[in-house]
Amino acid sequence: LPSVLCLGDCQLQPSCQIQKCTTDFVSLTSHLNSALEGFDLEFCKALRAYSACTYRNSKVCRGNLVYHSAVLGISDLMSQRNCSKDGPTSSTNPELTHDPCNYSGHAEAGKHQGGEKTTPTYLFCGLFGDPHLRTFKDRFQTCKVEGAWPLIDNNYLSVQVTNVPVVPGSSATATNKITIIFKSYQDCTDQKVYQAVTDDLPAAFVDGTTHGGDGNIKSLQIVEKVSGKYIEMHARYIGTTVYIRQLGHYLTLAIRMPQELVMAYEESQDLQLCVNGCPSSERIDDSGHLPLPVMGQLLPQRGAAHSRSVYTLETATTKCHEKMLVKDIYFYSCVFDLLTTGDANFTAAAHSALQDVEALHPRKEHWHIFPSSGGGGVGQGGKFCVGIGLACLILVVFL
């Protein structure tokens, strides 16, 4: 009231800056990963900076409900994380903080224009099953690609997979070896090589270390989630996350990487399945058509190491529907894999691949892929296209 009624030369009262306090806190914590060591320390430092900012604005924000909500929220978070009120705080000007081994912060600071920051664009690629490939362009393909093939090969990272046949008489393959090379980068990490093969999914690089970077700054780190079955790699200096799983006898891979780094490669490195997809000669699907064996009936295998269940289109559909309720391309890939191999582990592989998409893909509206019926393959109406020579039989798959 006094500021409204003041007469003569009045000094303008400072405005409530709670929004800036909140924005700074988000900037300080957006790159943090709770799976990595040091998360609680950095998060508590950011909370104390947030608290100090609200304290500086306590008088001018006295009647602001957002301010009071923020104060209560900070108190709750500090209790949850066991943060002490006294201690070091993060910089309250995160856009001015330069950390050469933090891609997210460095990229945002580099793009700082007109007082606004532009967050980096991230891309996703995944490989699972027989094998099914989701490229950085969100194109979905089923390929054979037997032997060793490069998924990614740019100036920062190389990923190579080796695929082997899974069923005699079928061109379908699955991944039994993954090799990843994190290339040397400034002072953030020396070159690190990781290799996984069937029944050997280590939680360390080939040199025995579990991280890159000097001292407490772990710019590259391996986190074991399930012993021998699931590991994550976090390369903070290039803003990249990799998930590798073993399901049954085969491996799956999912990766998120900044677009500008994905595209940083030479013309001689253009054979990258994640970037350009599989060569046409290596495709099993034909514009979405999946050539299922003998009308969905798997014939007994000769010389198989152990007997497999025989699936029909109906029983494979039922099995996949237990794990995946949405009939997107992951569901139909599951059906294809069961009919091709008879191995129920491929159901878990398709389900986990979709979970990895939900965890890593930056755009929720693109998580599910529904190829159009007009282009052949699986449509949103729940139809399955089975390739038979030049014809294509459409079978309705009921819920």
UniProtKB/TrEMBL annotation:
- Its main subcellular localisation, reduced to a broad class, is membrane
User: What's its membrane topology?
Assistant: Lipid-anchor; GPI-anchor
Which GO BP terms sit in this record? Answer: BMP signaling pathway; positive regulation of macromolecule metabolic process; regulation of primary metabolic process
Q: Which residues belong to the signal peptide in this entry?
A: none
Return any one Pfam family short name: RGM_N
GO MF terms held by the record? coreceptor activity
Instruction: Tell where it localizes.
Output: Cell membrane
Q: Does the keyword Transcription apply?
A: no
Q: Where is the Repulsive guidance molecule N-terminal domain?
A: 16-85
Instruction: Give the matching InterPro entries.
Output: RGM, RGM_C, RGM_N
A GO cellular component term found in this entry reads: plasma membrane
Which UniProt keywords are present, listed alphabetically? Autocatalytic cleavage, Cell membrane, Disulfide bond, Glycoprotein, GPI-anchor, Lipoprotein, Membrane, Signal
Q: Which residues form the Repulsive guidance molecule C-terminal domain?
A: 122-362
Instruction: Write out the similarity annotation.
Output: Belongs to the repulsive guidance molecule (RGM) family.
Its name, as the record gives it, is RGMB protein
Q: Which organism is it from?
A: Pluvianellus socialis (Magellanic plover)
Q: Which gene is transcribed and translated to give this protein? A: Rgmb
